[in-house]
Amino acid sequence: MINENYEVVVGLEVHCELSTKTKAFCSCENKFGGTPNTRVCPICLGMPGALPKLNENVVKYAVKAGLATNCSIAEKSKNDRKNYFYPDLPKSYQISQFDEPLCNHGYVTIETPEGEKKINILRIHIEEDAANLNHDNFGRGTFVDFNRSGVPLIEIVSEPDMRSSGEADAYIRKIKSILEYIEVSDCKMEQGSLRADVNVSVRKKGSKEFGTRTEMKNMSSFRSIVRAIDYEAERQIAELEAGGTISQDTMRFDEVSGKTSVMRSKENADDYRYFPEPDLVGIKLSKEYVEELRNSLPELPESRIKRYMADYDLSLKAAKFVTDSKYYSKL
Ligand code: ADP
Ligand code: ZN
Ligand code: MG
To answer: Which of 30, 157, 206, 237 has its CA 20 to 30 A from that of 102?
Structure first.
């Protein structure tokens, strides 16, 4: 049980792989798995001199996600380089978006025990996925599979609006359901196509200021997200109650022990030396294009819940049950 003098604050960065036919900046097939390093080319392998070209459908899918989550779509945006070294990133930079994301200021609503609640979305931007690192169980080292390198992602950044692990769970389920409805991702968490960075802080009830947050990266199951938030909130409260302070760290959640531990201290935007991607032109969208996509969206779960309640006299619970998954709701 969370100490009742405290409030938990959660913000999620949800990464979702888009199900376009080809990768974000080259024509390699975008598909999960397969023989390692068979869906690769000089562009997604980061060979010197290879030039990226933005896949139009990446923009289209990302705009759809933005519209379905009530975002405003930027008429003008651009790609930026986020620089860091890691073996899963052959170029040593990730093509992402920094100060001009494609979608801004949206929201989704979730059901809470206290009723409906709006969770605000700060932004949605497009970026590319990194390669897969497969750690060998027999101590022979780590194998890099570049099939995932350059797979298109959207990152959906929420405001720190959630106040419990339950609300975070409801939020990510809602996001998943919307993305499935609009058919921009298969959202298979077990394959990593939907994963979240989970930011957690605590504060005394009634306090106006947020506490210092920690971040748990790349969580890919509802259950671990809930467990990690509960554990981390209790750890932070115990630390504060003992007179300590929270440092802004990146944490690891261990599934077996159910505990979090410090991985590294948090990096800042400055550390990434973001700068505009010089090999790509800017993205400009016409109002007509955006409106066309808005009109192409299917009926979303929220509206369907209301319609099923009205047309078939279903309870909220029953209507929610049949609309949660696009698959059931279609039957
Ligand atoms: P990054 O972690 O990439 O540096 P941001 O500073 O934009 O990016 O914050 C990312 C996430 O952290 C957002 O989802 C936001 O809601 C959440 N967040 C920010 N401050 C807090 C806080 N005090 N407690 C919990 N979550 C927070
Ligand atoms: Zn490629
Ligand atoms: Mg983060």
So the answer is: 30
